[in-house]
Design a protein that fits this description.
The complex is a heterodimer. Chain A is mainly beta. Chain A is built from two helices and ten strands. Chain A has a five-stranded mixed beta sheet. Chain A has a three-stranded antiparallel beta sheet with strand order 3-6-7. By secondary structure, chain B is mostly beta strands. Helix content of chain B is about 5%, strand content about 40%. In chain B, strand 6 and strand 7 form a beta hairpin. Chain B is globular. The termini of chain B are far apart. In chain B, about 35% of the residues are buried. Classes of the chains: A mainly beta, B mainly beta. The interface between A and B is medium-sized, with 30 and 29 residues.
């Protein structure tokens, strides 16, 4: 089984991880968060991983935008804290439990051996983009 | 000689053990057969679930990720999450598991079968905590 290096970060109490190989760079998060950001001629849609359930009202503004590219998918993800990298087998990801099934934003969850640590969600970059596109209003609806 | 018939005393009924706790401003008892585990509330990864405000996030328990559910919201009462409790109760039905935090874990109570500990309500955790997701499986 192949070992993957993961980048772990948090946004407002939500801890997520992405394969570190897809990480491109970080930059200060503009306020308010734009829908897309252009860096080096590439457009990165900005997708908040809290989006499927919605960010809680009054949530602090994320400090960073992390840029990722994987295959043809590019996405900028806000982060409030970057926890560094660690290695783990992608096969160790467990499916999300029942209330979350069907979201498609997450590839799975890494469950720590000890209950004193948080489970960490593996973001699915392509799923994030699909979900964000589906959640946004069509241009005609947006101008009504 | 005929011996007088002794009436059956309530205390001769088999005893049932309950976990007694407070949540959402109420006092509850669940039979130990309905409880998988009692644990300290683990650190929560605050992933909300679309359309399910009662889901507070994910916690790790015995090598599994479980949803942490607000019992108060499940019972249409006040949110219990802010009560500051240190313990949670884990319930399961088949492959479905969840944990819910409690404000105050009082301990175990043993009462005759068919009775509840005094001053306690009870509920079916399968229907209240674990069943709601079935209606909105996507």
């Amino acid at each position: 089984m192949s070992t993957t290096r993961w980048l772990r970060f948090a946004v407002d109490g939500l801890e997520v991880m992405v394969a570190a190989a897809s990480f491109r760079r970080s930059l200060p998060a503009p306020a308010p968060l734009p829908e897309t950001i252009e860096i080096g001629g590439d457009r990165y849609p900005v997708v908040d991983p809290r989006g499927p359930g919605g960010a809680a009202a009054g949530s602090p503004m994320p400090q960073l935008l992390l840029l990722f590219a994987e295959g043809g998918a590019r996405v900028a993800v806000p982060a409030s804290d970057v926890g560094g990298t660690f290695t783990a087998d992608a096969g160790d990801l467990a499916p999300l439990p029942w209330p979350y099934r069907g979201d498609g934003w997450y590839a799975g969850v890494m469950v720590p051996a000890r209950s004193s640590e948080r489970p960490v969600l593996a973001l699915d970059l392509a799923g994030l983009l699909r979900g964000a596109a589906a959640a946004r209003p069509l241009p005609a609806e947006a101008t009504r | 000689m005929t011996l007088p018939r002794r009436s059956r005393r309530p205390s001769s009924a088999p005893l049932q053990t309950f976990v007694v706790f407070r949540a959402a401003g109420r006092r509850f008892a669940l039979s130990t057969g309905q409880v998988t585990a009692v644990a300290e509330v683990p650190p929560v990864n605050r992933l909300s679930a679309p359309g399910r405000p009662e889901v507070l996030g994910l916690v790790a328990h015995r090598g599994r990720a479980l949803p942490l559910v607000d019992l108060g919201r499940c019972l249409d009462g006040p949110a219990a999450a802010a009560a500051g409790g240190t313990h949670c109760i884990v319930v399961e039905h088949g492959e479905r598991r969840a944990a819910f935090p409690v404000a105050d874990l009082e301990g175990l109570a043993r009462v005759p079968g068919g009775a509840l500990p005094p001053g306690c309500e009870t509920f079916d955790p399968v229907q209240v905590v674990l069943a709601a997701g079935r209606e909105r499986t996507r």
